[in-house]
Amino acid sequence: MLTISELSAIEALDSRGHPTLAVTVVAPDGVSARAGVPSGASTGSREARELRDGDPARFGGLGVRRAVGHVNGEIAEALRGRAFASLAELDTALIELDGTPGKARLGANAIVGVSMAAARAIAVSGGRPLWRSLAPPGVTPRLPVPHFNVVNGGVHAPNRLDFQEFMVAPLGAPTVAEGVRAGAEVYTALRGRLAGRGLTTGLGDEGGFAPEIDSPEEVLSLLVAAIEDAGYRPGREGVAVALDPAASEFYSGGAYHVAGESLSSDEMIERYAEIIGRFPVWSIEDGLAESDWEGWERLAARLGERVQLVGDDILVTNPAIISAAVERKIANAALIKPNQIGTVTETLEAMRICREAGWAQMVSHRSGETEDTFIADLAVGAGCGQIKSGAPARGERTAKYNRLLEIEAGQRLPYGLAG
């Protein structure tokens, strides 16, 4: 049960220096809970809609005063003083209040901030940690394997690298603590490798290095060397590699444009097959464009037994889209981002559909992050076994990993991939 006595929001800054919302919920017993709203740069076309001001005189049009005004005005007026039996009931009220399919009227950034803050308030009022409060009935909470984005490209970095994220995943680590240690040590070793070759060690949006390299295979060779330099075994028994090419960003005119080459869907699939054969890649996210459903079907048929194939832009944490994707067998995993769909309840529903279909889930941050650690608790409570929150560097990224360490230190929970 939650009754909201006060609801407010302010315009704050995300990790890119862009405006976002910080939302605070206060209950009658004095319990106060706050949520910082993330924002993406590489976004799917069917994501729930952020509301931006569009005023070029403020933040280049990216201000969120209108969304803040909706929280402080219409949303607060609609929710204040009402008793909600569950978070699902509150989220339904938010969806109905907005009245648009993509939450475009009030703004998904406003709505998800209220939903996250309310979820946290319910946990605090109930005297439970957030992860336990979020755990669905019958689901065993689980500490997830962290996936560290150590090289940035695409829209996340000012370099020529078309693939957006190169991650290291300590699949062989026995605990979160050892996994975080492995990620940090590989990250440090990679910095040394890059510096030794005279390449920049400047950072992209998610804390990964952004060297002037255009070949994905060259980056992968560097990652394997860095894993070995750090004293780990490359592969699923030690430290594996995960990719997020974010292929929608380099798809145009019916072709994929990578490092000066123009590739068809089938040629792109074969390139991934070659990469998997040469390098310890265990997971590929958004390997093809969100509009290329036929290509995704062939990708899953060709590589789905060998690696995890994660849908992000094509699925956008949307339960209806995920259901259709399961039916068409276009992937075997989904990326989970609460702000893509707009409420915590819908996020948990998306994860339920994946779980019942035998699909994996990876909870994810966004390129524009805050210090909020909500997704760490979500990953644990939902028992999905995977999370990515960027590099093992920069406070908005390490906050999530540090939250996992905190949970692990205080609880005896299973750790590792689910299933």
Report on the architecture of this protein.
With 419 residues, the chain is of the alpha/beta class. It has 13 helices and 16 strands. The protein has helices at 65-79, 87-98, 108-125, 130-134, 176-196, 216-229, 265-278, 293-303, 319-328, 338-341, 344-357, 374-382, 395-410, and strands at 2-3, 6-13, 19-26, 32-36, 83-84, 145-152, 165-169, 240-244, 251-252, 255-258, 261-263, 281-285, 308-311, 333-336, 360-364, 386-388. The strands form four sheets. An eight-stranded mixed barrel has the order 6-7-8-12-13-14-15-16, surrounded by four helices. Strand 13, helix 9 and strand 14 (333-336) form a beta-alpha-beta unit. Helix 2 (87-98) packs antiparallel against helix 3 (108-125) and helix 5 crosses helix 6. The model has no long low-confidence stretch (mean pLDDT 96).
